[in-house]
Structure prediction request, 676 residues.
Amino acid sequence: MTTALTSIGLSHFLVLSAIVFGCGLATVLTKRNAIGILIGVELILNAANLNLVAFNRFSWGGVPVGAGTDAVPAVDGLMFALFIIVLAAAEAAIALAIILNFYNNFASIDVERGSTLRG
Amino acid sequence: MGLSYPPASEYWAVLPEMILAAAMCIILLVPVLPPFRSACRRSHKPMLIIGILGLLGAALASAGMLNQWFGTELPDHAVLGSMLTVDRYSMAFKIVLYLFSMFVLWMWGSITSRQTRTVDGPDYVSLILGAVLGMSLMASASNFLMIFLAIETASFPSFALAGFHKTTRRGSEAGMKYVLFGAVSSAVMLYGLSMLYGVCGTLDIPTVASVVAEQGLSVGVIVGFVGLLIGVGFKLSAVPMHFWCPDVFEAAPIEVTTFLSVASKGAAIILLGRLILTLGFYLPDTAEAHRMANGIATCVGIVGLVTATWGNLGAYYQENIKRLLAYSSIAHAGYMIMAAGLVSSSLGGAASSDVAGIAVQEPLAYALLFYVIVYSFMNFGAFTIAASVARSTGSENLRDYAGLGSRQPVLAILLGCFLMCLFGMPGTGGFLGKVYLGFEMWSAGMWWLVAGLVINTVFSLYLYMKPIIFMVFTKPDADRPAVAPVTVVPAAWLLMFVALIGILATGIFPDQVTGWARSNAALNYRSRPLFTPNDNRTIAATMMTADDETPADDHGH
Prediction:
């Protein structure tokens, strides 16, 4: 049990986050539904979160060498991940409001329908 | 434990931002207070006055910080947990930004506020102030977390502003395109930043720059830089993140277009300039570093060149003046990006100056600052005229400008002046701005960028001549409905006059403005990074329990 857990290292997380990033990017590029695109964005954001948290855990979370016992461990990556979560919620709120407004005007949330502006 | 709060003196450095935030709160509170409720229902005036006073106050606070009116020097180090670098470079841009936004609000109040319902007035003004707040943070961010927060603070209100005409199809479509592009590019930027954090172990920009200078470009750093370039490039509408720009600029209310075209692009270019200059400052003056600097300058320069060319060529078929000016703003952003990538202009600064927090004069910062100043004047003038014409005729189509030269000769001449300044006619600020940018490229040895700048300027002549040809040489179409005569409100004349003074002061008598920009183009680099990452490698292993036997070398570096 312990060996199985500890054999999971940074690279596993990086590979997973790269896969999630790829899925998100593919979603963004292929979906025509505005909410589908938003879901793709969330996938990319969570890939970034996963990276940050994994790097914080495995690479940069310690205290400086020779620091005293009361030294505070670095939490830069965790802080960044928290901010991303909060901002993603704000972004989703604005995006959903705009998508709702789009729906009111076009009776659809297919982004290809929005073709009034061309050229 | 290790928690510490920043000393009170550091809060002086963010006085302008605090004034803006206070003004936003006041704007949102006043309309619900009983004594002011009916006044706010009747007209936009109370909101407009608070907004303008807030921006003016912020501009005065910035000027005060710059000139030590409050008895406080600009901080010589990054303040508030080393999140913000408040130096002359960012303060000078903030003054330009605040004054420009103030004039935009004034333009809205005097020319186009009829299109906004009075109940929406408070939202509108507070959204603009919020976007300005984000942009001024962009100008002084010195931490990747702060860059992310600042870009989002600037973007979210802009999304709402772009779709402010929410009952129209065009308005909602513009908002949708803007928010989706913005969300995707900021997400990709975050992925890049997370890789940069993984390589460097910190989000502090000077430290990251010194780590990159020490270790060179690895895959993680390149992914990080590309992501960063995508995030900033979205704000700058750099190719290939430019698709939103013409659509949003066409469908957004005209004062929002004015605001976004200058303020958001200006803030992004100031941010990009700071990133590039900081990186160059920490690079050593070696042949290898020169190669790396040249590589980055080439990549960024190509992006800028493609952007400028795209903007100038795309404008050829445009008949809508806002869309035309949107393509012109893509081109101008391209010119600035071409210069902003010149890492070598600050190369080797850290080695030669060893004093922490020293302010370093940067010629590139000067060129960018001057260009942003000129660009804000000329674009503001052109958009003010477009707004005045649209107010009278209800049309933004260039065909309805036919015969304007005889109907409103003064207006036509002014529009001609602003367009020629945008083109870069010698004797106007636009020319001088391009000369300074080109000089920076030349002295960095990038002669092909200079050639691209000149060729693009020649291309762009057609785009700026087009409205003039319509105004002077074209007869009004017989098959089009006759347009109403163009009348201009006195406040609009005043605004145009201000913009005209601006382009004359930067073009014919530039000494004042160039002197001001030159003396303020000084960046604060913290010469000593927060830490050198090699000292800080007690990995999470120390945080783990003893029986958790992760080998310490299990972290991929």
Notes: Chain B touches chain A through 65 residues (CB under 8 Å).
